[in-house]
Amino acid sequence: MTDRSRAALLIAPAALFIVAGFLLPVGVLLMGGFRDGAGAWSLARYVEFFATPLHVETLWRTLRLGALVTIASAIIGYAAALAIVDSSPSSRGRYIGLFILPMMISPVARTYAWVVLLGRTGLVNVLVLKLGLSDEPLRILFTETAVFLGLVQLFLPLMVLSLVSALENLPPDVTAAARLLGASWLDVFLKVILPLTREGLAVGGVLVFTGAITAYITPAVLGGSKVLMLETLLFQRVSVANDVVTASVIAMLLIVMSYAANALLRRVASVRKA
Predict the structure, then answer these.
(1) What angle do CA 207, 251, 70 make, to 5 degrees?
(2) Which of 91, 182, 231, 258 could form a disulfide with 87 if both were Cys (CB 3.0 to 4.6 A apart)?
(3) What gap in Å lies between CA 223 and CA 147, rounded to an integer?
């Protein structure tokens, strides 16, 4: 048996499982969106989807929240990653552990923790009332703000770990050399650190954006039915309305958005290489 045959034999079980357990059912689901009521190939389902204002609003909200969560995670993540890389080896391990620990806890538990904090009797409203900032509890739950906070908390560790990995590969003398030549810290970040770590930023951006637009638990718990996102709309169409056709259109849109974000961020990361 040749090496190639042996490799194919070893890969075959995993490949068959992926084809039978993922590609085949997803392919059948997606094809439903390209057939009309008579079973002929058509884009009528997509035209109907985009003709509904609620669907367009939900699509725009999903894109907007995904982009905002990615940008906020990048800003907070760079600050945290720079501090981690500059710390001592023992402290670095503890800091990284702080970001890995939440990833070991169920997203359901992490999301319900925000319900405790943001509810009408939660810690945030208790502070607001005691400080006299409002005469009555603020309505924070079931708003885009609550969903945004929950998604940032959920996916920030992925951005931080990606940036820490990129910063650790940064040549140690480049920032010191730039400072000796008179560059400010802002110039060092924008003209040295950011270009040299753009691949880590692209990887973190793809992970955060695709995670934010495809997450279900956090938008469902913190947004409810008032802040629909595509994944919560998909679940509603399947479980409540038994509308598998619209669900297939939403699934295709989520796949296209994920691949588009991946292609865009990798293109941005490789611009200067080209």
Answers:
(1) 25
(2) 91
(3) 6
